[in-house]
Amino acid sequence: MTQDINDDWKKFLKRWMAVSLALHLVTAYFSVGYHSADEYFQILEFLNFKLGGTPLSDLAVEFGERMRPWTQPFIYWCLVKVWQALGIDSPFTWATSFRLLTSLIGWLSLLALAWRAREWFSKNERAWRFCVRAAALLWFLPALHARPSSESLAGSAFLIGLALVDWLSSRHKQGRF
Length: 177
What we know:
The protein is an all-alpha fold. It is built from eight helices and no strands. Helix 1 (about 1-30) runs parallel beside helix 6 (about 125-135), helix 2 (about 35-50) packs across helix 4 and helix 5 runs parallel beside helix 8. It is elongated. The relative contact order is 0.16.
């Protein structure tokens, strides 16, 4: 009987996170343009500079002042190099893959939070189920997660880190660490 209860919440979580994943992938695929100018001028233009497509004189002032980190453009540069190795040189394909990657990381942040919320709402199964459904169906999350902006990716990384720190802390308190 205990095994059935454990499997029940896992099935519930898998079902709703699958719905959320589908919404994230569809949104990332059909999303076009940009949400914020920073997404274009401080991520994609820096990437294009690294690829040899944008002259230094055309970059935003942040580049010369070294005000922006290179982590995200570097991740996308690595992805472009994979595409180029496969013979795919379409910037539209590249941009779609950036949105898909960023969206998947955003979805992972939702999954991590839903997983940890199981413990946070351990005394109220109904509240946890409501939170999982709400997170899976919150209409603007797939749209925000699909944008290859520094804010989107940093927010997702923060939430994944928060869930991991909370999990490690709970294991430490239980003496399992």
